[in-house]
Design a protein that fits this description.
21% helix, two-stranded antiparallel sheet, six-stranded parallel β-sheet
Amino acid sequence: MEAMDIQPSDVLLVIDVQNDFCPGGALAVPDGDAVVPTINALMQRFQHVILTQDWHPNGHSSFASSHPGAEPFDAIDMPYGTQTLWPDHCVQGTPGAAFHPELALDRAELIIRKGFRPAIDSYSAFFENDQQTPTGLTGYLRERGLNRVFCCGLATDFCVRFSAEDAVRQGFATRVLTEACRAIDRDASLAQAQQAMLAAGVVLC
């Protein structure tokens, strides 16, 4: 793993540190709240901090409850590809969708909300799951002259992974700060995610 050398044009991308992804939440990541003190400390070292927030409407198509007979973690075919079905989580305006109460929000200069389109899920901070619908983050980073992305947050094997891979595809040098992430790690998904990120050119540090 590579050590971390932070430059003024680097950005810390804090992914989905929300109540529903922390212990007691609807889609809790094991030990998910443990990232908060680490991320708060990291925020003090970066001049630029961006947060993402999962932001689903009621009845979102990625919810198992929207598909009669389906269970959470089932997979179905959607027009944009295979979709894992989830428990209802991060519903707009609910406490579960709120950021963890101890996360230092005042350090953020931008919050990207994703997953708000009812018919398509969004793991990545850069694109919806169709890999075509942008969130606008690429343009923001380029206009600001921010050219290296450090990813952290929840969960390593889903939203962190796909955000990091998309960042590389968009031309940004990309690192994942492993100590500031936690994974769902279902069916060896963490090891698969790590291998995929390395193959895509993401640096783990």
